[in-house]
Design brief:
25 strands; TIM Barrel; 13 helices; single chain; Jelly Rolls; alpha/beta; globular; six-stranded mixed sheet
């Protein structure tokens, strides 16, 4: 049970978080972000990673995975015209009004836009006149459209310079860094273009209250004092060039815009604030990024301390890429500390985000070639695969992971479980093992390996080892013999799954449990509404762990109406596909 004090706090924080929407410009008020009425605003948002800036991992590309190299390599295969066609389709389809409408409906109230500078201005080496800035309408038009959709939904839009001219760190994919070109940090021209871009953005949006803030430089990661041995700035003590540039960007913004909240990030992917303080603007917030560590008060102690000492708000600008268990625990931790958050990302080719982009065979062949080499795929196949992928970008073609959304919005402050699917129990009804209830670990299911904490532990763990279908700790695999069918595998002693069902008719039922095992060690118990009905039934050896054969458990009494059935592993070592109910 949640302690009463914690429950009351959570309800209060939820009220505060949503009270302030459609109430004008956000601003810093001591350690809080407030609206123009002075009401606390708790931002619950998602970053649109992969839209303006593709990071290779989102596309399953892990070799030469900066966007510029991905594009160059595609162009080598299909030529500039068809490559341009693909990227235009990508920008048109990735984020549309339907995406923003959906985010609002799901319960999010803000969006972080990771911007690539090259959609707004030319690279310094391509400027016709050195020192002058050519402005490109493409990026501004995309931003205008996104802002209009946010306005329609009363959501705040936070502008994030994700790829700065020259690149802001040695994690090359993040900022689409070309190491053959001058760095942001050793190029005055790149720094001046960065400053000018922010002034241009501020001029354009200075009177837009639904622009929530300017996140002026995403994840700097550069060792200024020792760039050879401290490439990402984790040990940096001074951060003098970073502070200098952020001060200059702030000055340029304030020349044209006195209203908007400015967000700064430390070095080392947003977390190293050595030498950055004191803050230099009255309307400023700190951002930090958090991945793969424990969700304890100790894990955020550094940023809580900075918030108190500098008397400024904190916003968690980027986090995610983990399991639902991690998501729920993290969001509860943030909100209990009045820290708004923005998840990463909305969609990618991958399962642990709200939306999953489906792949296709021609695209898979391209990825295999880009990662591993070998025989060059036909240009017509490459083009077909890319354009099909661009079509799959649209939300209506995405896989919507309702379990991820539920873990982020409902579960942080709810112990309630909900059915994953309707589960109407009539004669011969089948419930698939993977469709267990929505809810927290130890409430809707119990699994012994639930999240990846490798930053804290030094050891990676998988959560769902199959990385498919759902994002809880439960291990899931795809059944290669049936289209779009899945099963639970790697079942260990003590683990269990709960199914909320609606029984049409009271009576005794035979349960056909479809399992696969190459051992006779497995044992299953069945509980109904918390009462054990059968105990430690042996799971038969089917010859191997992919040959599924149902076995029967008879005389299971079920009342009509809503019932909760748990399938418990007294001993593991088997795979579980479905339950069929025979009256």
């Amino acid at each position: 049970m949640i302690p009463l004090k914690t429950f009351i706090l959570s309800v209060f924080m939820c009220f505060l978080g949503f009270a302030g929407f459609a109430q004008g410009f956000l601003k810093a008020n001591g350690t809080k972000i407030v609206n123009e009425k002075g009401e606390n605003v708790l931002l619950r948002g998602i970053g649109l990673g992969g839209w303006m800036l593709q990071e290779g991992y989102m596309l399953k590309i892990n070799k030469e995975a900066q966007q510029y190299r991905i594009r160059e390599r595609i162009e080598e295969l299909i030529g500039p015209k068809q490559t341009e066609e693909f990227y235009n389709a990508w920008l048109a389809n990735h984020t549309r009004k339907i995406d923003v409408d959906s985010m609002k409906r799901w319960g999010f109230n803000s969006i972080r836009l990771p911007m690539h500078y090259n959609l707004y201005t030319l690279p310094v080496e391509k400027e016709p006149v050195a020192g002058k800035n050519t402005w490109l309408e493409k990026g501004f038009a995309l931003t205008d459209s996104l802002l209009s959709w946010c306005k329609a939904n009363q959501m705040y839009l936070i502008l994030d310079l994700h790829a700065a001219p020259g690149g802001q760190g040695n994690d090359l994919n993040i900022a689409d860094r070309d190491p053959s070109k001058p760095y942001l940090w050793d190029s005055e021209a790149n720094q001046q273009k960065t400053i000018a871009l922010w002034k241009k953005l501020a001029e354009r949006y200075k009177d837009e209250p639904y622009i929530g803030a300017y996140d002026i430089l995403n994840e700097p990661n550069y060792g200024f004092q020792n760039p050879t041995e401290d490439k990402n700035g984790t040990k940096e003590k001074l951060n003098a060039p970073l502070r200098k540039l952020m001060v200059e960007i702030t000055k340029a913004i304030r020349e044209v815009d006195q209203k908007h909240l400015i967000i700064i990030e430390g070095n080392a992917w947003g977390n190293n604030y050595n030498g950055i303080f004191p803050v230099w603007d009255k309307n400023m917030a700190l951002s930090y990024h958090k991945y793969w560590n424990y969700n304890t008060q100790e894990s955020i102690a550094h940023i809580i301390k900075a918030r108190a000492e500098q008397n400024v708000p904190v916003w968690l600008g980027e986090t995610g890429e983990n399991s639902n268990v991690w998501f729920t625990d993290a969001i509860r931790l943030f909100e209990e500390n009045n820290i708004g958050w923005s998840w990463w990302p909305l969609k990618k080719i991958g399962f642990n985000n709200p939306l999953e982009i489906k792949s296709n065979p021609n695209y898979d062949a391209l990825v295999k070639y880009l990662n591993n080499g070998g025989n060059k795929p036909k240009d017509s196949n490459v083009y077909s695969g890319l354009m099909e992928l661009a079509t799959y970008l649209k939300l209506e073609n995405n896989i919507i992971h309702h379990d991820v959304i539920d873990a982020m919005i409902r579960q942080p402050f709810s112990e309630e479980t909900k059915p994953f699917k309707p589960n109407i129990i009539e004669n011969n009804a089948i419930i698939y093992a993977v469709d267990y209830d929505l809810g927290k670990n130890s409430r809707a299911y119990f699994d012994t390996d639930t999240a990846d904490y490798h930053v804290s532990t030094g050891k990676r763990s998988a959560g769902n080892r199959g990385r498919i279908y759902r994002n809880d700790g439960v291990d899931i695999a795809k059944d290669s013999t049936q289209y779009e069918k899945y099963y639970v595998n790697n079942i260990e002693k003590g683990e269990w799954l709960q199914y909320t069902v609606n029984v049409a008719k009271k009576g005794n039922y035979t349960l056909k449990i479809n399992t696969a095992a190459n051992t006779t060690d497995g044992k299953i118990s069945i509980q109904v509404n918390g009462k054990t009905i059968v105990k430690a039934v042996a799971v038969p050896n089917t010859g191997n762990n992919k040959t599924f054969i149902p076995f029967e458990i008879k005389n299971i009494p079920l009342q009509s109406g809503v019932q909760k059935i748990r399938v418990l592993a007294d001993e593991g070592g088997y795979n579980f596909s479905y339950i069929q109910f025979i009256k």
